[in-house]
Batch of 2 targets.
Target 1
Amino acid sequence: MNQRLEVLLVSTPVGPLGSGLGGGVELTVLNLAIVLRQRGHKVTIAAPETSQLESFSIVEIPGELQTLAQTQNRHDPVILPDNSVLTNLWNYAQQVADQYDIILNFAYDWLPLFLTPFFKGKLIHLVSMGSLSDVMDQAVHQAIQQCPGSIAFHTHSQAETFGLKEGYFCLSNAIDLSQYQFCAEPKNQLAWVGRISPEKGLEDAVAASQKTGIPLMIMGKIQDEAYWQTIVQNYSDAPIQYLGFLSTEKLQEQVRQCRALVMTHRWIEAFGNVAIEALACGVPVISYSRGGPTEIIRDSVTGWLVEPDNINELVQAIQKLDQIDRFVCRQQAETEYSLDALGDRIEHWLFQVISS
Ligand code: UDP
């Protein structure tokens, strides 16, 4: 199909774009905006105030940020603060809906999912996390029933957490490969990248670094300060270095010099952007065999998938890193995770939605 679409991207309400609070969603919004623009579609982004996204102008929406879904309990009801940015974003979307062919939601929240049938088939959702709460599960199932085709996940493992085997689109993810440089000869150090928050399980990577004596470079937003302080105190003699929350350019500069990226998540990771960013630099990924990374890493070829929560297995995998060809890691990123491949997948979904 050659149709040029008007697309509204409605960003996450947990933080402004560029703050790091949105985790992987921030990079996903950017990459989808880039590929849609490259293919001639007109893209508008609505996001919380002070958001910044490279060359894209943003419709900034004021209001209180939304509480993180991963800090709530499974049976908690929906929480909306007074003057909620989530509500304000969707008031805005409703006002301008007539100007768009498609409205793509990135919020992991009940409200936009509930609104699906009110947007006349235009409102679709890219779900960014696995199942965390009963209300969200119900809202996802209801959106699929009322508007088939309106839900996409990043991986099948993520869809499974909602008890789904079909009826959704699988978008995977991608990165701008030109921003990541290949490094054939790393230093003797490991990388850990992500939001510093309990579901990401940083302490296991630190424990593995302590056991092997190989320095661990830690990069990412400290989302839970108390959690971070506990790790620092419990592993005071581990060879770790915290480098802060880095721009993509600086991030890849650090990651590519590492022998491996270590992923030690406790939850079912929906995708794991950091895995494909590492592969793009030629860096193998050692990950707990849980969620999205199991669909990304080719075990023993571009990394190692190890038993979840097993630090000894992490250590064994670190000792086998020389068996991995870093060039093959970069190649995998090029064939499966280019922006072009993402462009094909997102257009496929959008045109499917439009034609139905
Ligand atoms: N990230 C970053 N700078 C850092 C650390 C992380 O920009 O110093 C980004 C990284 O590029 C990735 C995101 O944070 O896009 C983490 O996404 P991921 O999908 O791995 O996990 P999430 O936070 O969504 O659970």
Note: The longest strand covers residues 42-48.
Target 2
Amino acid sequence: MRRKIVAGNWKMNTVIQDGLDLAESVKKNAEKGLPENVMLILAPPFTHLAGLKNILPDNIGLAAQNCASEESGAFTGEVSAAMVASSGANYVIIGHSERRLYFKETDPELNKKIKLALASQLSPIFCCGENLHEREKGIHTEVVKKQIELGLSDIPEADFKRIIIAYEPVWAIGTGKTATPDQAQDMHLYIRTQIKEMYGEETAGNTSILYGGSCNPSNARELFANSDVDGGLIGGASLKADDFLAIARSF
Ligand code: 13P
């Protein structure tokens, strides 16, 4: 059975102490119980990773929001996959649309990041999704297909099994405009079918595909009710422990 995952992408929010307080609140609230087979992951800024590792229980995953596309060396300001792993994190978000858009990250570069993350024993959370223009033109499936083909090319099946996919339509991120449950289900099924073509039925069936984009406690239930929506990658609502946990309890 594939895992249900609710991951909080804090983006560039919270200084370290606020992040520790937020993680503590998430941990306390989670202790009250979660639906069966639901797992939480927190993705704070790099500076918070080691501190959060110290306070989080093993059943809450820890993710970086990015890693470098080079292994090591003279790349001032970059943080390598090995460094992320050495902080205690076990996941890394790769290919978020904000990285693609503002930092001009390309598909081949993302493919390098995925491979380096896997080599450092991290599980990548690979983001894909079309922008509004592409949705309106009706080319959203082609866009996502290409992102997956290029970003996840040339990954051995054993490694692919560690990858989590997050479908995040850019027009839904931070806009309050959520994809409808049907739009999410259609794209998730499309992505799963693509994985099936690449790796077969079993691997496709075991891959968790998360939805991201203005997911909140009021709309999570109808999104998560779809058979191919295995959870969410949550931005704004993950900055409030109660909202984040309410989303996790929407299964
Ligand atoms: P919001 O939940 O704030 O729309 O952000 C989604 C997102 O980008 C998560 O990675």
Note: The chain has one domain: 4-248.
